[in-house]
Amino acid sequence: MQTVRITKMFRNQKRVFIRWTKKRLAIALELVNNPPVIFLDEPTTGLDNYAIKQCMDLLYDISKEGRTVVCTIHQPPTSLFQKFDQVFILAKGLCVYSGSPSELVPFLSNAQMFCPKSHTPVDYLIDIVQQNPETINIFASNTENGKANSKRKAITPNRTRESKNIYEIYQETTQMGLSDMSVEFPVSFWKQFVILLSRIFLQMRRNKSMLYIQFFHHLISALLVGGIFFGVGNNATQIPAIFKFCICATVFFIYTYLMTPVLLFPLEIKLLRREYFNRWYSLKAYYMAITVSGLPLLILFGAMFLVIIYFFTDQPMEMERFVLFVAMGIAVALCSQGLGYIIGTLCSILKGSIVGPSAIAFLLALAVYGMGYNDGIEPYMKFIMKFSYVRYGLVGFCSSIFNERAPLECTDEIYCHYNNPSDLMKEMGMNGSQYQNQIIGVVIFIFIFRVGAYAALKYRMSSEFSTRIAYYATKIINPKEC
Asked: What total number of domains does the chain contain?
């Protein structure tokens, strides 16, 4: 029995030590960016008396360094209660006392409520408001619901910071611009960018399973597509198959690089909200870091996929065509990734898994519309099709392979309808399409989606902005409620 008790005691001490370590870590995380005001909800919960004393001593030392520490504590002991400079006691949403701890007993005496020596002043006041709820309004009106100190004498205008209540401190902080979103950071933008980029690369290196999944996904997909269209590149009888091959390459880059951020980025948003709220770094530095960190793997794996399918399908062995083909694939991947960040920022994983494929289906429909009509596409549809970057990507792939290409020979048949690749381009509504125009169109969409993703991220991080949008939307729908 003695051994069991000692073991249980050791386990309890171990649990308290772990809790206190977590408390210190949480406080340390709040201090990373040297904030002027720190809010702590029940920092002493789950700790023993010794750990509570250590915790409050730490917070007391922090407050003496020029920071404002705001804590919520239930029934603090007398030794802990005396460490506070300013106390707010709440009952049913109203402030029944606002002032220094030393003024609480005189405050109660002035109200003909004498605190027994066997009670702590806080416990005595809590017992009073619980037994006599009507006293809550009396105390709240004395303190002006927390806007005035509960003292026996009038409040003088020249008060020290310790005697001011939190409402006045917040007003001063707002006037100094410390509560503004444009707060200055301790380190420069580039320093933030380098640290964030290093952290992301470290996370990527540790998450080896994700790297393996991406590698084998690109490799297996490349072998599959290359095997399906094996050796069709220089066969005049297989010109339609080459066109289908371009569609497959386009669809691969769209789905792969759009759905990845749609499914993974919402998980990053939860961590980002906490760190950005604590002003550890600017949103611009974070967004630039995630943009740059995604480029190496995108280019490496994307180029691997394109090289495999290009040589497996026996496309023209011309360096210029090969470079244009690879460049278009990387551009489509970057464009799809930007659109994926927009959806992943604004939607949850569940909603994004619906919105993402729906957007792809719409863009693909615009991309292949009118193929087989020759030049019979309606003018208004030509204008609408310009809003699909998938169309630019598909036409770019076809242009890199077919434009200015000599007629192919019919090896197995006497007549080949598409032995001249320009005939296929004309029938598919791509006659006269220049590769330069297609790559410029994709680059423009890359810029639009990247800027849109940053704006969406800014919207998610700005509660003030989202509240303003909701207010105006409600005002338009139902003006009477506003």
From this structure: 2
